[in-house]
Amino acid sequence: MHQRSRLFAVLVAALVGLSPVLANAQACTANNGTFRFLNTAFPSLSTNGPVFVGQLVVANADGPVTFSLDLSGGNSDLPPGLSLDPQSGLITGLATHSGTYKVVFVANDTTQQISQPVTLNVSSSGGGGNGGSGLTSQTFPNGRVGAAYSYTVVPSGDGPYVFGGSDLPPGLSLNGATGEVSGSPTAAGTFFMSLTVNDLPPGEVNIGASIIPVTILPASSDFAFVTRSLNNGELGTSFCDQYATQNGSGTVTFGASGLPSGLMLDSATGAVTGTPTVPGTFLVTITANDGSTTITTNLSMVIAPGSASDFHWDYLGMPAALANATYDRQPPIVLTAEGASGAITYAAVGLPVGISYNSSSGQLSGVATQQGEFPVTFTATDGVQTINLDTTFIVLPPTGGDVSQIVVNFWVRRESLGLGTAGRESWRVSAIYNADRRTGSRFDPTMQTFKAVLGSRVLQLDPNQCTGTIPDHFCSFASASGVTPVVRVRLVPRTQTMSWSTGDDTIAETVPGILPQTVVLGDFAWRLQMNFDANGVFRPPLDLERTAFVVASGSLALNGMGLDSARLRMMLADQNFAYSPGVSTLRIQILEGATVLVDRDFTALGGPATTGVDSRTGKPWVSFRTLSDASTTDRVAMRYSSHSGQLSLTLSELNLSAISNTEAYLTVQLTVGARVYTTAVTFFAPSAGRYTLVMP
Prior knowledge:
By secondary structure, this protein is an all-beta fold. It is 0% helix and 48% strand.
């Protein structure tokens, strides 16, 4: 599960070798509400795990907050095995002794001090703990852009393990079998990674998750964020926060994506002001640029429903799911809220097929059958107040790893943001996608929804808003004359393309920086992380911070057994792409369902590579083509450039006789080294023996 919740996304700056410099109250705190705790309770703990990860949450702070325990008057210390980080309020560990502990937490924002009593209940089972499931250390070493990085986590439990992760720095990947995070970072910032530990049988079975920061410094400076947490606020009350960096080489400007409605960032000062208009938990991406380098961090913010309300998501960790594996543990995996005025009812929209969310307990369970990143909106209501959390549910391959190994079958050809004056801004996109376009499966605009989300900007067309002469082949939408923002959408399943644009718009996102983008087309959803420059321009493939792979065009020719051929033009972007001639595995597989049409390992054909560094992004690139193939069956010729993303594949002397007539939904799986890229596309037969991607 992709988790950047405020409940996790703050850790002591000392963990990553940085020291906060904000020691005084912020300049905009005159009317920002009463400094207060939002926590009133924590869920029950167990000596049998999983490893506990909790967070003290306060709102309306006047400056950086530090936390402590009031041990006077007979108050309890934390249960043995747990520890409190004073800078972040993060509580972690595995309780070793059962009992009831009456703890008083203290928060100080440099101008005032408040306290909150909480009772922690710890149960036991079988007379002792089993080590739970989690990580014994929450500290990762710093890295640097372009320099080799390697760190292996140490799990708590008896194993064997499968490791999962999301929000790793671009260029780094997680080995699902060993827990090693390695690679060469391609972007700087402080990244709050979500790491999952699956402790498998034999022995105790458990699942735990931790949010751990890692700081990647720029290639030639120590420019970094000082900000490690965001202030929290409340609906209808003036808000104040201040972002800060250190070691910038010039004037620093800031950007933010995902701020709650009603708040605005001053890009020149890093101050966030305004009055929140929507309650909930909001995932925020912050960028800072010192004139030569952009750094990024991912944090979150809680907005309570009002000044008298403590209602907020009590997010204590949701692991990533593994495809086709049971998503469950004892105690159950839950996403719940606290501080409600009555009984809470839960709901979720967007969970993958096979995963359910209990409306009364908030328990998540089931078996997810499809890997991917699934945008989910969680809702909690107590009958009076409602709060939302928009996040991403992660389903990894059975072997684990990180989300860079989840291939997104969506390719943005062009995208730009025209930012400047509210009400005069714009957003323009042209894209290619792969999906099931067979009759009865393709997008139907009369019954299904199209939605595009960039940060906090949402463009949505409900059923029957997108119209066309052949509804399931093409549809378009244009806002009525005089209506703002001006919106135009064109969806063309016939050619796997879509485009949309807005004008006279107001877009809260700022650039340069990495912005999350989600696109939903009926039953299909794709999520990308996209790096925009200071002019609001995105350029594929090097500005893609997710692995993207699509078949853009292709044709099949059936000329008789052993004489068939296929030509595929594909687009591939992968920050972790690596290739070594003659060493890296090269393999192509084409399947229709369980029927194998092509399966050829052509590792020995790997030709010499050309490498370089892109002058605009500073990212490395590689290109190569295969050697001449002397095989008499399933012949292969391939060429690829990670700089352009273009990949061409020509196959000949094939036997494709098992393919379906008229419509064939084919899986294309390409292996390069340790990376496996998979997509599925529909081919159509306009005439006997000829197939194309264009819908007739």
